[in-house]
Amino acid sequence: MTAKHIRQLNLESLIKESGLSKGMFAAKVGTAPAYISQMLSESKPRGMGDQLARTIEAACNKPLGWMDRVHPLAIAQNGSTPLTQSEEETGFADGFAVWENEQPLGRDEAALIFFQEVEIAAGAGRRTDVLEVPSKRLSFSKTTLRKQGVAEDAAYCVTVVGNSMEPVFPDGATLGIDTDRTDIKDGDIYAINHNGSLRVKLIYRIHCGGGLRLRSYNAEEWPEEFVGPEELATVHVLGRVFWCSFLR
């Protein structure tokens, strides 16, 4: 199942969910009815661009990236081909698959290392730190990385733990991070090592006085945090989040 097919299935599901005709749905999302028909064509479907995918998500009150994820309900509604095992595990079939050490990598595949919290000895006690785990990897399409402008040797993965970034990144979501992109752009999403804890946050610079603001999508349960200039050494930016995959 390709990314193009996933978007097509999700589009069909949203039209059925809305109860609107294709023409009325097109008006709702601000595009031409003919374009909707072309994207739903069974013989030669037209691809959906990223900008339109994000527009449809916003118009239908869906979270960012919803159009790019596999949703079992959409598959059931449209009688699509069942997912393969790797697609079920990842929730995203294009450019991403579980990789086992004994399996040879394809010509277009790169094995991405994970970052995760690791407990290590620290004097008489123990502490955690965020380290590479070479034994845990996922295969990722080199073509997909190139399209995102991400260098193969700079791409790593992390796993979200907890509900602070829901509904966009739920507990257990796998994220791709670009370790070449550590300069903070206000409002962008980064994986960070914060005092030995692996965290994913929206980050903003505090321009008056210095420091950082760390924000969560689930702001009701996880209020905004402030890191003062004297605490900046406790925050190490691992990289910018460029990709996400999960199943609900």
Report what the structure shows.
The protein is α+β, with helices and mostly antiparallel strands and 248 residues long. The chain has 2 domains: 3-82, 434 Repressor (Amino-terminal Domain), CATH 1.10.260; 96-245, Ribbon (Umud Fragment, subunit A). 24% of the residues lie in helices and 31% in strands. It contains 7 helices and 10 strands. The protein has helices at 3-18, 22-29, 33-39, 50-59, 72-78, 85-90, 142-147, and strands at 96-98, 109-122, 125-141, 155-159, 174-178, 188-194, 197-205, 212-215, 225-227, 235-245. A 7-stranded antiparallel beta sheet has the order 4-5-10-6-7-8-9, with no helix packed on it. Strands 1-3-2 form a 3-stranded antiparallel beta sheet. A hairpin with a 2-residue loop joins strand 6 (188-194) and strand 7. Helix 1 crosses helix 5 and helix 2 packs across helix 3 (33-39). It is globular, with a radius of gyration of 20 Å.
List the helices and strands and how they pair.
Layout: H1 3-18, H2 22-29, H3 33-39, H4 50-59, H5 72-78, H6 85-90, E1 96-98, E2 109-122, E3 125-141, H7 142-147, E4 155-159, E5 174-178, E6 188-194, E7 197-205, E8 212-215, E9 225-227, E10 235-245
Antiparallel strand pairs: 1-3, 2-3, 4-5, 5-10, 6-7, 6-10, 7-8, 8-9
Helix pairs in contact: 1-5, 2-3
**CATH fold-level label of the largest domain:** Umud Fragment, subunit A
Shape: globular
Q: Mean pLDDT across all residues, rounded?
A: 80
Task: List the domain count as a whole number.
Answer: 2
- The number of helical elements comes to 7
Count of individual beta strands: 10
What is the CATH level 1 assignment of the largest domain? Mainly Beta
Q: Report the structural category.
A: alpha+beta
**Amount of beta strand:** 25-35%
What order do the strands of the largest sheet run in, or round the barrel if closed? 4-5-10-6-7-8-9
Question: Which architecture of the largest domain per CATH?
Answer: Ribbon
Any idea what the CATH superfamily of the largest domain is called?
Answer: Umud Fragment, subunit A
The helix content, as a percent range, equals: 10-25%
User: SSE order, as H and E?
Assistant: HHHHHHEEEHEEEEEEE
